[in-house]
Amino acid sequence: MKALVWCAPYKVQVEDVPDPKILNRRDAIVRITSSCICGSDLHLVDGFIPFMKPGDILGHEPMGIVEELGPDVDQSKVKKGDRVVVPFFIGCGKCFFCKRGLWSACDNTNPKSYLGEAMLGQATAGVLGYSHLTGGFAGGQAEYLRVPLADVNLQKMPEDLTDHQLVFLSDIFPTGYMAVEQCGVQPDDTVAVWGCGPVGQFTIRSAILLGAAQVIAIDDRQTVPERLKMAEDAGAITIDMHDEYVYDRLRDLTAGLGPDICIDAVGMEAHGSTIIEHLYDKVKTNLFMETERPAAVRQAIMCCRKGGTVSIPGVYGGWSDKFPLGALMNKGLTIKTGQTHVHKYVPELLKLVQDGKIDPSFVVTHRLPLRDAAHGYDIFRGKKDGCIKVVLDPAA
Ligand SMILES: NC(=O)c1ccc[n+]([C@@H]2O[C@H](COP(=O)([O-])OP(=O)(O)OC[C@H]3O[C@@H](n4cnc5c(N)ncnc54)[C@H](O)[C@@H]3O)[C@@H](O)[C@H]2O)c1
Ligand SMILES: [Zn+2]
Ligand SMILES: [Zn+2]
Fold first, then answer.
1. Residue 66 and residue 28: Cα distance in Å, rounded?
2. 314 in ligand 1 pocket by Cβ < 6 Å?
3. Which residues of the chain are modeled with pLDDT < 70?
4. Distance between alpha carbon 321 and the CA centroid of its chain, in Å?
């Protein structure tokens, strides 16, 4: 089959690779109909998560049709021919964490947990197509995908909605939703969102759906005007980090208090709010003296009102420098974060789509044949051609 493989930092390409096979008795093989490129994939391509091997297949936001099932799959849950979305984290459904809805913390699905234990203290669950830190599983930017524990992980989808309305249930819709929902937003709250990429877009719309009084979106109008426009279309007030003082504007918009909830939807490759900050983090990451550039979360902590909540869906890998612990502690802030517990949110969010409360296809700017996946990475990474979200089509 064809699949998009990681070759080296800054190099991915579509190659012929062996078809996946049923390895365990509860595996499924899914024929992929749509598979997205995510900001998290850029962290792998840019070498910020150094646990990739040449030949690893990327992709953790797929959906498709069940092609084959292992003999022990519970067929009351999933059958051959079902249309399914695949959550990016693999859960077991039975451990301490899965039972509490903390699916991304599952203790049974990461066969390389020793890496996570060394990096993080305890390992996360396994993830499809997301490095050896999360198990080294082949990903779904491919014609076919093997999914372990299929009867727990495959999420059955209705036939009357399009792929573009459903595929984001695999990751970025639950991610944006959890980023807001876990803060317990109140009707008079102001929610500020750093980053208007695909995750930021779903965070903004989730904040509105969950009843925030005011949503403010921050990004760079020079490089991504279309992302700020999409945020405005959703009803957000926008701040251009290139031309405006984010801290001052946020105070002006909140009667001098600062936003109640500040959400970092940027992650480890943030641009600094000043050139000096950006250069500082760039030099330190290049010298392996810190693992990420945490400029957005620093600013979120500094801007948040006293007693407010900072939520971090943006991905970080290890050790950050100049983290404003003093502001966090003295202002009495609450931190909410986490890799998304996708399984927990799918039923609720699918219902919102079915009830017409949101049409997730708004975010798609490019649908490309799988064979053009490397081009998809190029325009998504470089913010070229108005690119906000790329969906790959293996059948095209
Ligand atoms: N928690 C999870 O489970 C989860 C799931 C999916 C993605 N993510 C993470 O969410 C983050 C965003 O993903 P994406 O697909 O939207 O990525 P993206 O790269 O498309 O978007 C990031 C946006 O942030 C903007 N930005 C950069 N520096 C900024 C700053 N200092 N202030 C404000 N905006 C800034 C960029 O211009 C860009 O538009 C990534 O770190 C990704 O790994 C997390
Ligand atoms: Zn993703
Ligand atoms: Zn589990």
1. 7
2. yes
3. none
4. 23
